[in-house]
Amino acid sequence: MNSCLPLQNKTILITRPEALAGPLLQRIKEAGGIAQHYPVIRISNIEETATLLSIINNLSTFDIAIFISPTAVQKTLEKINPLPKHLVLAVIGRSTESMLKKQGYQAQIIPDDFNSESLLQQPSLQQDKIVDKSIVIFRGVGGRDLLSNTLTQRGAKVTYAEIYRREKNPLTSLNHEQLKSLDALTVTSNEGLQNLFDLTDDKSCLTKLPIIVPGHRAQQLAESLGFSHIIQASNATDDACLESLIKHFSV
């Protein structure tokens, strides 16, 4: 056994949904760690409403499509493929960009950071470029309205295409012994963090564990929930999560 592996014998809890956890689980194992999967979010399909069907059938009338997440890409392309060639594609996050590439598409608008605020700073989405443009935002049910509100204020006509649903996975709470066996927790969204907290009965033990969070908003939430050892990754990607774990355990 290679004792030089950076996560040797460290037990890491992964909270990504089932369909998105595989690569991170594998990379932790390759780094010598023990990956435990506890998917706090369940992705489910939603019933195709008249509104959603209208968007799907008239996608060619839109100028720009924004994909909020890899799941948004996956679920959209299950229903619409190929996409109209003239459609300008925008993404939040490298994972979302990668999912598009896997399906044979290239995003034209890619923010430097991995959030709505950074996407809104892109030159292609400023007022002079999007006045009277039709924009569709593919996302899960619910979520922040910052993108829609800001783009509407800039003169665009914005439509939500809610293409899947995120739900709290009805998991059995991790018991005290399971929590004590962990060396670190990872979450990749505020919703996942809140679900992990809500699903765990032994909150005192949970909040003492080091937790990797994907950004400033998640750090603020973790602080409000009482976590005492919060490590802010640069974003929600597997690369950033793994980098933060290795850095933490190398100190």
What does this structure look like?
- It is built from 12 helices and 10 strands.
- The chain is an alpha/beta fold and 251 residues long.
- The chain folds into 2 domains: 11-40 and 170-250, 3-Layer(aba) Sandwich (Rossmann fold), CATH 3.40.50.10090; 44-167, 3-Layer(aba) Sandwich (Rossmann fold).
- Strands 2-1-8-9-10 form a 5-stranded parallel beta sheet, with helices on both faces.
- Helix 7 links the parallel strand 6 (134-140) and strand 7.
Give the overall shape, derived from the CA principal axes. Answer: elongated
Spatial extent as radius of gyration: 19 Å
Structural domain tally: 2
List how many beta strands DSSP finds: 10
Main sheet record:
5 strands, parallel
Short summary of the structure?
It is built from 12 helices and 10 strands. With 251 residues, the chain is of the alpha/beta class. The protein has 2 domains: 11-40 and 170-250, 3-Layer(aba) Sandwich (Rossmann fold), CATH 3.40.50; 44-167, Rossmann fold (3-Layer(aba) Sandwich).
Label this structure with key terms.
251 residues; alpha/beta; Rossmann fold; 2 domains; five-stranded parallel beta sheet; five-stranded mixed beta sheet; 10 strands; 39% helix; 19% strand; elongated
SSE diagram, text form:
Layout: E1 11-14, H1 18-30, E2 34-37, E3 41-44, H2 50-57, E4 64-67, H3 70-79, E5 88-91, H4 94-102, H5 116-120, H6 127-130, E6 134-140, H7 146-153, E7 157-168, H8 176-180, E8 184-186, H9 190-199, H10 203-206, E9 211-213, H11 216-225, E10 230-232, H12 238-250
Helix pairs in contact: 1-12, 3-4, 9-11
